[in-house]
Design brief:
CATH class of the largest domain: Alpha Beta
Low-confidence stretches: none
Mean pLDDT: 83
Order of helices and strands: HHHHHHHHHEHEHEHEEHH
Shape: elongated
Number of domains: 2
Radius of gyration: 22 Å
Largest sheet: 5 strands, parallel
Helix content: 55-70%
Length: about 280
């Protein structure tokens, strides 16, 4: 059965437990697509078997198949206009928008904390620490994440190369990319084609490839050695990068801790330069 038919409320006959699971999925599909069958079962206090049987009752081979189709539906149907429309329907005042958005951001942070694998996070930091150069590609709305990470890494004395297409120089910058380098890609639905192409190219060049994205079905994962995923939807016309920014903050802080002797020396040298050049306002 097609996902859009299910969303429109025309599923086949279901047991009360199956209906309970389906209602949960349809109320928050952007969250459900990140959950395993076990996670979903635990959240609803039902058995894993109930999740599998629901997927089969809807005509899918299993829950992973259903989740793939749900993810495709979310990516293609929930546009920026749809998300803003949902917000308008749900809230009644400007004050409600403040509460709604901040509450969803807090929930996204909670999910990120609970679901980020400390081992993958550690490997991510180790790859950054051992890199000769760190290339960053973060296009369109994720550009702010890339620029923040670029600035923070340069504070630590790292050689960082932010990639920006359109100037004709991006592929030239990647000409000598190699095994001693790391490429970090940021992308969320709808994924930019150039980001995926650059990630693939970096993998072909034997560079270490890292991704910050939204889930296991992201096209960035096909090239990434390690991926960190965060939720990003808050039912607004824009994406929420609160969790992604917090994750970047954690990565940079962990990198500073990893090489703390060098970090302290670099920061001390920079403070001297800032003082000499009178960079900051003094009352």
């Amino acid at each position: 059965m097609k996902i859009d038919q299910i969303v429109k409320g025309r599923p086949p006959e279901l047991t009360p437990t199956q209906r309970k699971v389906l209602d949960y999925i349809l109320k928050q599909p952007e969250h459900a697509v990140f959950l395993t069958a076990t996670d979903l079962a635990r959240n609803l206090n039902v058995s894993d078997t109930s999740i599998v049987r629901l997927a089969q009752a809807l005509g899918y081979a299993g829950y992973p198949h259903l989740k793939r189709r749900l993810r495709e539906y979310v990516q293609t149907k929930i546009t920026t206009v749809d998300r803003l429309g949902e917000t308008v329907r749900r809230v009644e005042s400007v004050g409600d928008v403040l509460t709604d958005v901040l509450a969803k951001d807090l929930n996204n942070l909670k999910i990120t904390l609970e679901e980020t694998d400390p081992e993958i996070f550690t490997r991510f930091v180790e790859e950054m620490d051992s890199a000769q150069r760190i290339f960053i590609i973060a296009l369109r709305s994720t550009h702010c994440l890339g620029m923040f990470m670029t600035s923070a890494l340069r504070f630590l004395g790292r050689e960082v190369v932010p990639l920006m297409p359109g100037t004709g120089e991006m592929w030239d910058q990647l000409r000598d990319l190699g095994p001693e380098d790391v490429l970090i890609g940021f992308a969320f639905p709808r994924y930019t084609k150039v980001t995926v192409q650059v990630m693939d190219y970096a993998r072909e060049r034997d560079a270490r490839v890292l991704a910050v994205t939204d889930g296991e079905l992201s096209p960035l994962n096909r090239s990434a050695h390690f991926s960190l995923t965060v939720p990003y939807v808050i039912d607004s016309y824009i994406e929420s990068f609160t969790s992604a920014l917090s994750l970047v903050n954690a990565l940079v802080t962990a990198l500073a801790f990893q090489s703390r002797t060098d970090t302290l020396q670099t920061l001390s040298e920079m403070e001297s330069v800032w003082e000499r050049e009178d960079v900051y306002w003094k009352d």
